[in-house]
């Protein structure tokens, strides 16, 4: 059996973003139930030098929209990065899911060998599509969705692994 670049990128990003949307919905409801200003969650961070929840979601969606775009040779959509509410984060995730829905498996066929050039950690790097997806895009995407989950869990939102996985 062959696994396509589409299956390990677009399909995974889509499923995980839908799960992240559920996590955010539970957090929003939990804030209301506990009478906590939603900004407490949206601006929370795990450590002083880490990004807050809102930025974690922004970066996760950046990787989700950027990776398939680069792999397909398309321009990466630019977002404003000005979300400041759960509603706006949900809209950003929905916009990213809509973008992901524009890709077909054929769009990514052969992209494992496409040269991807980008700036990482302040320097220009070049790698093939498979290495980019597996060693840059996916680890960063998972880091930021996991950190978003962890911020909320740390702040008392009753989340579990099943919620993170989207079950």
TrEMBL record:
Task: Note one Pfam family from the annotation.
Answer: DUF1993
Q: Which Gene3D superfamilies match?
A: dinb family like domain
SUPFAM superfamilies from the UniProt entry: DinB/YfiT-like putative metalloenzymes (SSF109854)
The name of this protein is: DUF1993 family protein
What species is this protein from? Answer: Rhizobium loti
